[in-house]
Structure formats: C-alpha cells, structure tokens
Specification:
This protein is of the alpha+beta class. Helices cover 28% and strands 32% of the residues. The chain has 3 helices and 5 strands, in the order E-H-E-E-E-E-H-H. A 5-stranded antiparallel beta sheet has the order 1-3-4-5-2. The relative contact order is 0.19. This is Acyl-CoA thioesterase. Keywords: Hydrolase. One of its GO terms (molecular function) is long-chain fatty acyl-CoA hydrolase activity. It comes from Patiriisocius marinus.
C-alpha cells in the first residue's frame, strides 16, 4: 500500500455559529463543536484510507476560547498518523474576527478513526509520510499517545512502550 502525505487528507469546514447552537450566555455549545470536529475528522480519515471510517475515540479536546454567537468557525483536520487500521486525526479550530478578518486559534482536538469494510471489520490503511516539521512532530507524538492509551487500557505491557520509556530516559 502506497504511503500518503497529511496534505492529501486535509479537510477544512467553515460555518457560522447560529442562535440554536449557543448556550444562554451566547457561546457555542461544546457538543456542537465536537460534532463539527467529528465530521471534519471523519472526512479527513476517509480521504486518507479511501474506506468507510468509524470514530473510535476522542483522545483530546481543548476548549481554549469561547466561540460567540455569529462567529465564523473553521475546523481544519488532517491525519497525523496511520497505524494498521486506525488513524489519528489532529484538528485545529479557528475563529475569524468579523471586522479585521484575522483568524485566532480557539480550540484543538485529536480523534482516532478505524477503517472498516461493509461488515464493520477493520481494514488496513496506507502509511503516512509526514513532510513538514509540525507534521513530523505530530506523527511522533501520536505513537506516544497510542502507547500510553494501550498501557492504561491494560493492552500493552509498560516495558514494551518504547516511545514512552524514551521520554523518561533522555
């Protein structure tokens, strides 16, 4: 299977925050943002694998800035690592200033997807070939996150988590 670059999976979704998507103080519901992120990440994983994909986990979400009613919100998703049948997708969430047009990073998140066939069985995905320094950084960090998750779930012996051990032996 031929490797793909993160840029081949990039997905950008831009939309407006409507009144029905806000809480009583006029900020976007976190669940609404999570749904938008899931859609963008799903498309990104599908572009990488060219298969049906299902959300396996929401690994990390940081709600760093409130997103007010009327904001233009952009979710940028890109595959950060591909494993056997799973893919980690990293997302940056931006809000656009109405007057200046300047974009500010508001949130970020990391989701994991699994490629499956029509019966729901896991299917292999292409390897990922990061190009930029940021892509390489996210690629390396993804393996540490996966190993930590496996250790915490009791599915990996901590002594086998070589990337995690390397963090503490440098």
């Amino acid at each position: 299977m031929e490797a793909k670059t993160p840029s081949e999976s990039i997905t950008i979704i831009t939309d407006l925050v409507l009144p029905s998507e806000t809480n009583p103080i006029g900020n976007m519901f976190g669940g609404e943002l999570l749904a938008r992120m899931d859609r963008a990440a799903s498309i990104s994983a599908r572009r990488h694998s060219r298969r049906i994909v299902v959300t396996a986990s929401v690994n990390h979400v940081a709600f760093n800035k409130m997103i007010p009613l009327g904001s233009v919100v952009t979710v940028e998703a890109k595959v950060s690592r591909a494993f056997k049948s799973s893919m980690e997708v990293y997302m940056d969430v931006w809000i656009e200033d109405r007057e200046s047009g300047l974009r500010t990073k508001a949130n970020e998140g990391i989701y994991t997807f699994v490629a499956v066939n029509e019966m729901g069985a896991p299917m292999p995905v292409p390897p990922l070939l990061p190009e930029t320094d940021l892509e390489k950084e996210r690629f390396e960090a993804a393996l540490r996150r996966k190993q930590l998750s496996l250790v915490l779930a009791g599915k990996m012996n901590p002594t086998d988590a070589t990337e995690l051990k390397a963090l503490f032996t440098k």
